[in-house]
From TrEMBL:
<dbReference type="InterPro" id="IPR012904">
    <property type="entry name" value="OGG_N"/>
</dbReference>
<keyword id="KW-0234">DNA repair</keyword>
<dbReference type="InterPro" id="IPR023170">
    <property type="entry name" value="HhH_base_excis_C"/>
</dbReference>
<dbReference type="InterPro" id="IPR003265">
    <property type="entry name" value="HhH-GPD_domain"/>
</dbReference>
<keyword id="KW-0227">DNA damage</keyword>
<keyword id="KW-0456">Lyase</keyword>
<keyword id="KW-0326">Glycosidase</keyword>
<feature type="domain" description="HhH-GPD">
    <location>
        <begin position="137"/>
        <end position="319"/>
    </location>
</feature>
<protein>
    <recommendedName>
        <fullName>DNA-(apurinic or apyrimidinic site) lyase</fullName>
        <ecNumber>4.2.99.18</ecNumber>
    </recommendedName>
</protein>
<keyword id="KW-0511">Multifunctional enzyme</keyword>
<feature type="compositionally biased region" description="Basic and acidic residues">
    <location>
        <begin position="377"/>
        <end position="387"/>
    </location>
</feature>
<feature type="region of interest" description="Disordered">
    <location>
        <begin position="374"/>
        <end position="398"/>
    </location>
</feature>
<feature type="compositionally biased region" description="Basic residues">
    <location>
        <begin position="388"/>
        <end position="398"/>
    </location>
</feature>
<dbReference type="Pfam" id="PF07934">
    <property type="entry name" value="OGG_N"/>
</dbReference>
<dbReference type="InterPro" id="IPR011257">
    <property type="entry name" value="DNA_glycosylase"/>
</dbReference>
<dbReference type="Pfam" id="PF00730">
    <property type="entry name" value="HhH-GPD"/>
</dbReference>
<comment type="similarity">
    <text>Belongs to the type-1 OGG1 family.</text>
</comment>
Length: 398
């Protein structure tokens, strides 16, 4: 039976405590989902997915490629709709999130305090190639600009899937699409800056120098990619090996490598650490001393600390706390307490990349409102080279 190009709405029984798409899809994991009216829309695996949610079900609708469109990649016609399986895989619905929250809460008072208002935050099981390129775009960037860049990549280099209400939707380009002499210069014209070189070079390496299943060999063998063939056991990597392999690519530092491991390769223990997470570690876990630089040893120590605390899905727990501190979700985290005539207001002062609290007293008030740190959506730890360049420029200006 040939599939209808646009399916009817269907539904999966999923409680909001197990999956909240309004949080999960906008907390900096994937950068291609768009909120259109009350629906979340994205192209995935050769189709357009539209999602919405109520208290008990995830509702989904599929738009398949238009056969008459020109200039698209070669797309085989499907005779079986595997979208339900895709959703189970993409949102890792085989994992009992409530049990994981209970486990993390039992060992971590800070998680136990913040988790009730941030239930249903799941790690997305994304395509490894897309995650790699998207997080290369994340360098010195914020969620809005990363999303714009990823959208441009799809529009200029990806296959056109279909139109919805006259709006074209493109899938993510593959490595071959981003090779060629004109890619880097075109990406620079599109506003990618220095990332253009990293993207073009990474695409060339993956397309021309690595085996076709190279990224799959870096994947957690317990969490294979959707529709992909699992690499032979002899070629399986460990999390640490996958991380080291990714570091060899242009534009990939420790944080980007961990983002790819966690969100593209299924390594749940991976903990991406940027200045935002470093501030959480210092503020909420009294980890380490204040420092002007953040080196690899400190990076590894923070990740190991959280892995020891939270276990094999430490990256999932980290994502909950990271989301709780995002400015976009600050309205969920207000806590009011009664005082006796004095309000102590905590302000955050940033000096040399280190955030520290400064308190000031306000007399004749009865309520204190304490907000968690409202950091940027995406903060980046400067590398040693970047720190040296900044110091050099600073001396030059002086």
């Amino acid at each position: 039976m040939v599939l209808k190009r646009i399916s009817e709405w269907r539904k999966l029984p999923v409680a909001l405590s197990e999956l909240c798409i309004d949080t999960t899809l906008r907390c900096g994991q994937s950068f291609r989902w768009q909120k259109i009216n009350d629906e979340w829309v994205c192209t995935l695996h050769g189709r357009i997915l539209s999602l919405k949610q109520d208290a008990t079900h995830l509702h989904y609708r599929v738009t398949w490629p238009e056969q008459s469109l020109k200039g698209t990649h070669k797309l085989t016609s499907k005779t079986e709709d595997d979208t339900q399986a895709l959703l189970h895989h993409y949102f890792s619905l085989n994992l009992d999130l409530a049990s994981l929250y209970e486990q993390w809460s039992s060992v971590d008072p800070n998680f136990r305090k913040k988790a009730p208002t941030f239930t249903g935050v799941r790690m997305l099981n994304q395509d490894a190639w897309e995650a790699l390129i998207a997080f290369i775009c994340s360098s010195n960037n914020n969620i809005t600009r990363i999303s714009q860049m990823v959208h441009k990549l799809c529009k200029h280099y990806g296959p056109l899937i279909a139109h919805i209400d006259g709006v074209p939707f493109y899938d993510f380009p593959n490595p071959d699409d981003l090779t060629g002499k004109g890619v880097e210069s075109n990406l620079r014209e599109l506003g990618f800056g220095y990332r253009a070189k990293y993207i073009a070079e990474t695409a060339r390496i993956v397309a021309q120098e690595k085996p076709r299943d190279w990224l799959e060999t870096l994947r957690n063998p317990d969490n294979p990619g959707f529709g992909s063939q699992l690499a032979p056991e002899a070629r399986h990597s460990t999390y640490k090996e996958a991380h080291e392999e990714l570091l060899a690519l242009k534009g990939v530092g420790p944080k980007v490598a961990d983002c790819v491991c966690l969100m593209g390769l299924g390594w749940g223990e991976s903990v991406p650490v940027d200045t935002h997470v470093w501030q959480i570690a210092q503020r909420d876990y009294k980890f380490g001393k204040k420092a002007k630089t953040f080196n690899k040893a400190m990076y590894d120590a923070v990740g190991d600390h959280f892995r020891d605390l939270w276990g094999s899905y430490a990256g999932w727990a980290h994502s909950v706390l990271f989301t709780a501190d995002l400015k976009a979700f600050s309205d969920r985290s207000l806590v009011k307490e009664e005082t006796h005539g004095v309000t102590i207001k905590e302000e955050l002062i940033e000096t040399n990349g280190i955030v520290s609290p400064k308190k000031r007293k306000i007399v004749e008030t009865t309520t204190v409102t304490v907000k968690p740190e409202l950091g940027a959506e995406e903060l980046k730890i400067p590398t040693e080279g970047e720190a040296k360049r900044r110091r050099t420029r600073s001396r030059g200006r002086a």
